[in-house]
Amino acid sequence: MFAVAAASLLTAASALAGPFFTSSTPKEAAPGEVVTLRAGMGVKLRTGMPLYLIRVVSAPRPHLCDGGKGYCEPTARRAPASQPYLRIGTLNVSHARGTPMAGYGVTVRYRVPARARPGRYAYVLYCRWCGRSGEGSLIAWPTTRTSPDARTIMIGTALIVQ
What we know:
The chain is mainly β. It has one domain (4-161): Immunoglobulin-like. It has one helix at residues 4-9; strands spanning 19-25, 28-29, 34-41, 49-55, 63-65, 70-72, 75-76, 86-91, 98-99, 103-111, 119-127, 136-141, 143-145, 153-155, 159-161. Strands 2, 4, 7, 8, 11, 12 and 15 form a seven-stranded mixed beta sheet that branches. It has a four-stranded antiparallel beta sheet with strand order 1-3-10-9. The chain has a two-stranded antiparallel ribbon with strand order 5-6.
C-alpha cells in the first residue's frame, strides 16, 4: 500500500521512500512529439518501474482504506500490458544522483504514442513493491483532493494530446 496523500505531496525534497512526479512539459503535444517528465523515488532501486499514459477518465482512482484513515492506490498482480494503458517508458533511478532526504530524481523523455487519441491524459506508474499481498500499486499523477473532508480524490490532467 502506498498512501495517495504521500504520492501527491511528495516532491524531490521529501524524505519519503515512494515514487514522485514533479513536472511534465509541454502540457499539450501531438502523437510523435517529445515530452519531458521529471520524476523519481525516495530510495534507490535496482529495477525500473513501468510508466504509462492513460486517459484521465480511465485512470485508476485511489480509495479510502485503513478504516477511512488513509487513501490507497488500486493494486494489480502485474504491470498493465494492454489498453487503456499506453506504455511510454520506465522510471529507473538505479543510476540517479541524489540522497534519501532529497530523493533520486530522473528525467524521462518519450514520444507521445501514435495510438494516443486526442484528450486529457494522466501518468500511471506500476510500483511492484508498493502494494500488499504480492500485488503492486497503480499510482496515478496528478492527483488532487477535491472535498473538504478529503474523501474525494480526483485524477488531473498531466498532458493534453492534440
